[in-house]
Amino acid sequence: MVFHRVNKLFRKGDDEVLYEPIETPYEVLHDENDVRRPILVLPDEPLPECQQFSWLDYTVFMLLGIAMLWAWNMFLAAAPYFQNRFAGDKAILSRFQAAITSISCITSLFCMLILTNMQSKANYLGRIILALFLSLIVFSLLSISTSHFRQTSPTSYLVFTLIMVFFTAYASSLCQNGSFAYASSFGRPEYIQAIMTGQAIAGVLPAVAQIVTVLGAEDPDKSASDLVRAKTLSDDSATAAFTYFMTAAGVSIFTFLAVFLLVLKQNRILRRSLKCVFTNFGDTNVTKRKPVGMLALYKKLPWLSAAVFICLAVTMFFPVFTGRITSVRTNEDSRLFRPAAFIPLGFLAWNIGDLVGRLLTLGPFSVGRISPVILFVLACLRVIFIPLYLLCNVGGREAIIKSDAFYLIVVSGGFGLTNGWLCSVCLMSTGYYVEEGEREAAGGFMIVNLLAGLMAGSLLSFTVSGVGT
């Protein structure tokens, strides 16, 4: 380098040239002691079609998010129907909800662990289709059971219900694993956010339906006998459950058609035919993916996986409190402040906050701006919301802060908003910390941590189960 510059001082005839191209000799460019740093080169050509954002793709992934949690929310919405079916056995009546939750959480976690380890020949699109098909069958059978086989014993119907819960959880695991992995393969974090938004919508709509049902219901005829009123209540709950289950089946069909359109659109890009997708779930694997173990992913995503786990573990405390907090307006005649409507209103406030939080990730608070360590710290700070619930009217006792607005907006809405935003950002950030061939596996890996957090939170929530009783 020095000899080259000294040489130029003694060159003649260069004074006439005022400007010349900046060139570096070959030997200088290839100097062994030279430190070469990467630079960003912007291509003149547009992004490949598979990496361009599409609202059609976004909508399909949002529908997949709705389908994932819609089934579970229908089980929750049909709780009065199950109470009537199990009314003949007090032991089952008091434990069926816990049994449904336990079967669902355990099945989901173990299925996700197995599916995550099946990477090399995994057909994630095939898993999505199989999940929708299973959901359609399960909820068709549940719909039939609301009007037929009404004379079966509570024990027999509980066994049937738990079998349906098992297959629902299995289908949900297939759909979650397949959808997040499939969306990750597109290289667009917006599609991950679309799934998260769909999940939030699946929580909002059933809560709205419950509130409308309560507000629109007629007051029971006080002159009727107890037997007549019990039969009317049983018929109404069966009709409502039939509507819930058929809606879940309809969501599966509609989502299936949407995925079909997405496959048609991506057929050329993915280099696979529809025939392979529907007839062979294991052999259709054109994209080269790099199998990676759970431990390797933990090393690459330590803070993000921990943040998702803690976030969901803390979140699982909210159903315990929300199901027991009533309005401080005990003397109001409005049905909205009665427990039958106010409790679903609390769930609605949380789910609306969750939806808003997920939508915020499309704005200035999106991925790439916050480090994983900070996300982990924020997840830990969400524990603050648990004592805030104790300031409200838990179990009908005197609230420390006598304000329904404080409970609905600050506590429930804030708790949901932080959950939706934090989970979305963590999942959307995953692709930035793994190689391109590991994105699909990383998507499934993060869902394993999400489900593990849900299960851990469910168990930890028993520590506050006696509050307000």
UniProtKB/TrEMBL annotation:
InterPro entries: Eqnu_transpt, MFS_trans_sf. GO terms for cellular component: fungal-type vacuole membrane; plasma membrane. The chain crosses the membrane at residues 55-77, 98-118, 124-144, 156-174, 194-217, 238-264, 303-323, 335-353, 373-394, 406-434, 446-467. Keywords: Membrane, Transmembrane, Transmembrane helix, Transport. Its main location: membrane. It is found in: Membrane. Pfam families: Nucleoside_tran (PF01733). It is a multi-pass membrane protein. One of its GO terms (molecular function) is nucleobase transmembrane transporter activity. It comes from the Eukaryota. The keyword ATP-binding does not apply. Belongs to the SLC29A/ENT transporter (TC 2.A.57) family. PANTHER family: EQUILIBRATIVE NUCLEOSIDE TRANSPORTER, EQUILIBRATIVE NUCLEOSIDE TRANSPORTER 1, ISOFORM A. This is Nucleoside transporter. It comes from Blumeria hordei.
